Amino acid sequence: MSSHTPILIVGIVGSLREISYTRMAVHIALAGAAETGATTRLIDLRDYTLPFCDGSGKEAEGFPDLARLREEVAAAHGIILGTPDYHGSYSGVLKNALDLMGFKEFEGKVIGLVGVAGGALGTVNALNDLRKVGRSLHAWVVPQQAAIPQAWKHFNDAGELDNPEYEKRLNEVGREVARFASLLNAEETRRFLELWERAMPNPGGEGR
After folding, report:
1. N or C: fewer beta carbons within 10 Å in the chain?
2. 147-186 tens-digit pLDDT
3. Secondary structure in 3-state letters for 101-119
4. Max alpha carbon distance in the chain (Å)?
5. DSSP character for 7?
6. Contact 178, 33 (CB under 8 A)
7. Is 159 left (phi over 0), alpha (psi -120 to 50) or beta?
8. DSSP reduced 3-state for 124
9. What's the CATH number where 186 sits?
10. Within-domain flag for 204
11. Count of domains observed in the chain
């Protein structure tokens, strides 16, 4: 990690269950990010009283937890989104939280995706839908993702997995988010991007 830019990775738990396999999966992914030296923070949507997004832009009125959520996500360099599979897509509570935020919180950030499912098919469609959301928010979604099918079989009460391969996949999502976030926030990368934006257009590039 760059000594100049402390990297913060947050994990958003898109589940409201008291005993949540999604929360367990996000914890493991954040542990992978922490292994790289990043600071991590779990954002559990159970701890936030949020309004429904109505598109008015006034949803924050009377909901201090929304301002807190926006501030915490905006402060992060990388974000891990965790979701259960509900009817072949991601959860409504995560959708609402994402709709209440926007470019200010996500643009230019690195996003990693993890999901859990009760069935054997996993959460491929849910994670693909989240990948589209990340692109729409002008975020960088890492190629690596992790889906845990039949999560109830593989997690114990302590949040530990019985399958080392699943744990490895979750860890790697966290590590990838932290690595790319560190790269994007390195001083050398920032200087390169600034020079690129100020560069003169190629005088010989037109008309070819």
Report:
1. C
2. 999 999 999 989 999 999 999 999 999 999 999 999 988 7
3. CCHHHHCCCEEEEEEECCC
4. 65
5. -
6. yes
7. left
8. helix
9. 3.40.50.360
10. no
11. 1
Question: Which residue is associated with the tokens 């991601």?
Answer: 90
DSSP lists the bridge partners of residue 114 as: 82, 146
**How far from each other are the two terminal CA atoms of the chain, in whole angstroms?**
42
CA distances from 23 to 83, 188, 196 (A): 9, 35, 40
Secondary structure (3-state) at 48: coil
Residue 26 identity: V
**pLDDT at residue 92, as a whole number:** 97
Residue 76 lies in a domain: yes
The partner residues of 146 in beta bridges, in order of sequence, read: 114
- Local structure of residue 146 (DSSP, 8 states): E
Domain span at 147: 8-198
1 lies in some domain: no
Query: Within a domain: residue 158?
Result: yes
